[in-house]
């Protein structure tokens, strides 16, 4: 919780200097965090349409101009190639490797997409007394592939990925209301309880991130996750794609409350 | 108010048969209405990005597949070339004419965009006791060009268009809350009172639609309007574009409450 009250730019500077290299949950309370997808322009229309058709898993926060690695809206001046703790590169749908920065891979035909992240609403969950287990246990959030199909768009198709937080039964309604009020960072849960109903066979083995403890009296609650595009990239196999590594997010300069009510 | 409780499909059938040719305000209470923009594919990425960057004036409800005039989500099976009361065709940014159907203009490279319309929230305004003057006066809503710039995207740039409804001073907060809860059909007002502040010099001369009476004790309240893209088309001059005629909307099969909470 060292960085709970830190300012986004300070954290991003430490990330660019590779002083911070891990997951960003619990950092910069009140500020929106974002998933990253970078694709060549030839795929950009199909992917933009994919986000429009799948707003719960892919709430779009900013789209960069082709060839420009600097953000304008969510973190003005941020170099998207350096200010995320860990990146992934996929070629033809296969993970090629993880990188602490990707400036040497930047190209003139690349377009960046920022998608809201559910880490954003965790400070508000904590404020209202709802536990966030992966912050307590200082690990990454557990994420799972599901059997929930996304709406296809052009070449992009695949199933939704979800993040899971164990919630005490008596706080489930509150968790739905708190997060449902923040649709641009995924909003309300997509599923509560019964993981097998959405195609998750073993909660102890997340597809991304780390397992967390589910205590007696708690139910697993699942939110749409911005890692969904990575699952879709693996299935749809574009020739080149850069993403963040799951849980290693961009911390933006925009507060959640601005996303909720709009800027002036 | 004859069609206030009508079902969307019945109204769309009457529209396709050209029995209904006028504005659609006050029809099919509770169902979302939509603005239409049809562009050649070569402009589709820029326009999709324009809607993403301008969600208040251009809340996107559905994007068709290239060359397919039939809708899938907002009004499954609807022929977008026939089920709107009046269309406009623009060439190089100039209005070429108005048409009651546009099937003969359809091409394999065209993409349809549906954008939420503020007519959608008028039934809820009426239910909560807020007057809707253009429904009372059986005319089109007044719409104005403003000096509020949109965020540019590719070739598309221009200012926001707003719709205006006179609201009694004591009901302004209620009008903000009722409409602010429905962001996918434009949401909260963008401006209240003082039309000159947003570049409107004469309320009696709307740029689109009809003037309505502003009574003593009422203030003009302005909402972002889905005619904004037409203003942008006039400035940005794509070689070909089809839109609805202002106020002559697509009445969808989706209820506002589904837009608010999502479908299952």
UniProtKB/TrEMBL annotation, chains A, B:
Gene3D superfamilies: PSTPO5379-like (3.40.1640.10), PSTPO5379-like domain (3.30.2040.10). Keywords: Lyase. InterPro entries: D-Glu_cyclase, Putative_hydro-lyase, UPF0317. Its EC number is 4.2.1.-. This is Putative hydro-lyase H8704_08935. It comes from Jutongia huaianensis. Belongs to the D-glutamate cyclase family.
């Amino acid at each position: 919780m060292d960085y709970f009250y830190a300012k986004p730019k300070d954290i991003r500077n430490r990330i660019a200097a590779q002083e911070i290299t891990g997951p960003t949950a619990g950092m910069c309370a009140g500020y929106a965090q974002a998933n990253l997808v970078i694709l060549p322009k030839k795929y950009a229309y199909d992917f933009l349409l994919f986000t429009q058709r799948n707003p719960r898993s892919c709430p779009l926060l900013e789209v960069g101009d082709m060839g420009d690695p600097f953000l304008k809206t969510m973190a003005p001046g941020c170099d998207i190639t350096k200010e995320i703790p860990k990146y992934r590169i996929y070629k033809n749908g296969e993970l090629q490797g993880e990188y602490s920065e990707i400036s040497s891979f930047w190209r003139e035909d690349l377009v960046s997409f920022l998608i809201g992240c559910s880490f954003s609403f965790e400070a508000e969950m904590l404020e209202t007394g709802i536990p966030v287990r992966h912050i307590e246990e200082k690990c990454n959030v557990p994420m799972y592939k599901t059997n929930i199909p996304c709406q296809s768009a052009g070449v992009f198709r695949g199933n939704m990925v979800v993040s899971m937080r164990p919630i005490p039964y008596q706080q489930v309604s509150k968790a739905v209301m708190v997060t449902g009020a923040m649709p641009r960072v995924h909003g309300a849960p997509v599923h509560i309880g019964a993981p097998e109903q959405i195609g998750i066979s073993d909660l102890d083995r997340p597809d991304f991130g780390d397992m967390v403890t589910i205590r007696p009296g708690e139910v697993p609650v699942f939110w749409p996750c911005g890692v969904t595009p990575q699952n879709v990239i693996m299935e749809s196999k574009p020739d080149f794609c850069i993403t963040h590594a799951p849980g290693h997010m961009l911390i933006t300069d925009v507060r959640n409350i601005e996303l909720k009510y709009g800027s002036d």
